[in-house]
Automatic annotation (TrEMBL):
<dbReference type="GO" id="GO:0046872">
    <property type="term" value="F:metal ion binding"/>
</dbReference>
<dbReference type="InterPro" id="IPR044399">
    <property type="entry name" value="Mb-like_M"/>
</dbReference>
<keyword id="KW-0561">Oxygen transport</keyword>
<keyword id="KW-0813">Transport</keyword>
<feature type="domain" description="Globin">
    <location>
        <begin position="1"/>
        <end position="107"/>
    </location>
</feature>
<protein>
    <recommendedName>
        <fullName>Globin</fullName>
    </recommendedName>
</protein>
<keyword id="KW-0349">Heme</keyword>
<dbReference type="GO" id="GO:0020037">
    <property type="term" value="F:heme binding"/>
</dbReference>
<keyword id="KW-0408">Iron</keyword>
<dbReference type="GO" id="GO:0005344">
    <property type="term" value="F:oxygen carrier activity"/>
</dbReference>
<dbReference type="InterPro" id="IPR009050">
    <property type="entry name" value="Globin-like_sf"/>
</dbReference>
<dbReference type="GO" id="GO:0019825">
    <property type="term" value="F:oxygen binding"/>
</dbReference>
<dbReference type="InterPro" id="IPR000971">
    <property type="entry name" value="Globin"/>
</dbReference>
<dbReference type="Pfam" id="PF00042">
    <property type="entry name" value="Globin"/>
</dbReference>
<keyword id="KW-0479">Metal-binding</keyword>
<dbReference type="InterPro" id="IPR050532">
    <property type="entry name" value="Globin-like_OT"/>
</dbReference>
<keyword id="KW-0514">Muscle protein</keyword>
Amino acid sequence: MIRMNESNQLEWDVDKDMLQKHAVTVMEGLGAAVETLHDSHFLNTVLFALGQTHHKRNIRPCMLKRMWPSLHYGLGAALGEGYTREVSLAWRRLYSYICLQMRHGMENPDVEVDVTTAVSVKVT
């Protein structure tokens, strides 16, 4: 488990299986975000609800941006030479957008959101 100590620093009590599962979930979520960029209403609704879920788990908004270095490293390792400066910047912008939308949900945990009414339609 990752938590903040009294000095506002991260403490790690890592369950490696849980961490791996979360990493896979995050990467699948990023893939889903890319696939729904054409439907901003749906994407924003899902990210808002995801932020509310993180709030319920006591994740603070400032912790979202702290994930970028790990994501940046993982993308670089996976994409190799294809992970250019431009590609890195595009991923960083997408991740910043995701953090912003999740932050809105974290700051408004009591707003009712119905993700099922924000149906995404795939444009081909």
